[in-house]
Amino acid sequence: MTDGETPFSITASHTLQSPEQVQICTWLREYNWQANHSFMDRAANESQFETPLLLLARREDAVVGGLIANKRLTWLRISIMAVDPKLRGQGIGSQLIAEAERWGKEHSCCYLYIDTMQYQSPEFYRQAGFNVVGELPDWDSHGHTKFFLMKSI
User: Fold this and answer.
1) What is the C-alpha separation between 61 and 120, in angstroms, rounded?
2) How far is 146 from 121, CA to CA, in rounded Å?
3) What is the CB neighbour count within 10 angstroms for residue 100?
4) With 70 as the cut, is the pLDDT of residue 7 above it?
5) Domain co-membership, 89 together with 118
6) How confident is the model at residue 76 (pLDDT cuts 50, 70, 90)?
7) What is the reported pLDDT for 5?
8) Domain N-acetyltransferase: where (predicted)?
9) What CATH number should be reported for the domain holding residue 70?
10) How far is Cα 69 from Cα 85, in angstroms, rounded to an integer?
């Protein structure tokens, strides 16, 4: 500490709904407005800044797979994709990805991205044309890597 600086302390809390939390978010938003005004202006004023997407694969009346995503600007983020375990390997996941790509192109997306665990199917996404752009080793504290993948569409 240099002369004239007041010492500070750090405290922990498990309550996020507080005036202090509001202040911290305000500081970040103010900085973001200065650093990236066009993005922040668009986020604040565009009614469709984020658009949710739910794709369902059906056989007869039963859902056999689904994909949940969210479009933001030119990115479509797939947050969840799953197929009925009895029907995996039959192309349902590939069709869901293809439909997400089609929907993304129709809605001005240039990219798809997803994160997935080492045991969840990173190879499936690689085969679908995604590239690994990041990894977090031991993400779950049990030795499994989390992969971040993206694809230009």
Assistant:
1) 27
2) 11
3) 24
4) yes
5) yes
6) very high
7) 82
8) 11-153
9) 3.40.630.30
10) 21
pLDDT confidence of residue 73: 87
Residue of higher predicted confidence among 15 and 94: 94
Domain count, the chain: 2
Strand order in the sheet with 146-152: 50-59, 62-72, 75-83, 111-117, 146-152, 131-136
If asked whether residues 44 and 65 sit together in one domain, one would say: no
CA 134, CA 127: separation in Å to the nearest integer?
17
- Range(s) of the domain holding residue 131: 50-152
Give the Cα separation of 70 and 16 in Å (integer). 25
Amino acid 3: pLDDT: 67
Q: Is the pLDDT of residue 81 over 60?
A: yes
Neighbours of 54 (CB within 10 A): 9
CA distances from 25 to 15, 31, 50, 70, 73 (A): 14, 10, 20, 23, 22
Entry pTM = 0.80
Instruction: Look at residue 113 in the predicted model and tell me its pLDDT.
Output: 97
- Same domain for 108 and 75: yes
